[in-house]
Amino acid sequence: MGFFEFAKVMMVVYNLLILMGGAGLITAGFWMRLTGDVLGSTLLGVFYVNTVDTIRVDIFFISLGIIMALLGFLGCCGAKKESKCLLIMFFSIIAIIFISELTIGMFALAYSSYIGKLLKSWARPVLQDQYGRDLHFTSQWNMTMTKLQCCGFNNYTDFVGSYYSKLYGEIYHSSCCGNTTIICDMQNARNSTVEVRKTQR
């Protein structure tokens, strides 16, 4: 087998994988649509509550899956039949995707501070409203705070006046006090090393 034949086989295999990945995303999208976005809440975790109001995750998965499946089909057929037209279409789509990703990356780099502020403006209202109310969201945030050794998005003040504080008072998750065995009330949260690290950032 010559180099050209090897490259042809590898391109067919590679594009078959892309095609199967696209089919998987389409399947996941329809599954989410049928099950009421249960899969989406599992995949997106703490970001799901607010995302579902602005982006239909199932439609996004289906659309992305269709694009991937089309890309895989064009590349696979183009390589198999050695069709210049299909290969030109394939590489054109690849170029468009690459330019789009590069543009998004440059935009994210240029506006990283703005994106950080946007995330902060998103996180506090969602924590105030959903933490303690939505069990899945609460468990996801608890897991995130435990793993990252943080408290809320900014610090313990994210929970002050929240739905959770109305139910439990000024008692916070143990990660707000450095995962110690003491009861994590406001005084302990304020004096914890977690708060010190947050302040120094």
From TrEMBL:
The keyword Transmembrane applies. It holds the Pfam family Tetraspanin. It is found in: Endomembrane system; Membrane. The chain crosses the membrane at residues 12-34, 54-74, 86-111. Its main location: membrane. Keywords: Glycoprotein, Membrane, Transmembrane, Transmembrane helix. GO terms for cellular component: endomembrane system; plasma membrane. It is a multi-pass membrane protein. PANTHER family: TETRASPANIN, TETRASPANIN-1. Belongs to the tetraspanin (TM4SF) family. Interacts with SLC19A2. Interacts with NTRK1/TRKA. Structural component of specialized membrane microdomains known as tetraspanin-enriched microdomains (TERMs), which act as platforms for receptor clustering and signaling. Participates thereby in diverse biological functions such as cell signal transduction, adhesion, migration and protein trafficking. Regulates neuronal differentiation in response to NGF by facilitating NGF-mediated activation of NTRK1/TRKA receptor tyrosine kinase and subsequent downstream signaling pathways. Plays a role in the inhibition of TNFalpha-induced apoptosis. This is Tetraspanin. It comes from Hemibagrus wyckioides.
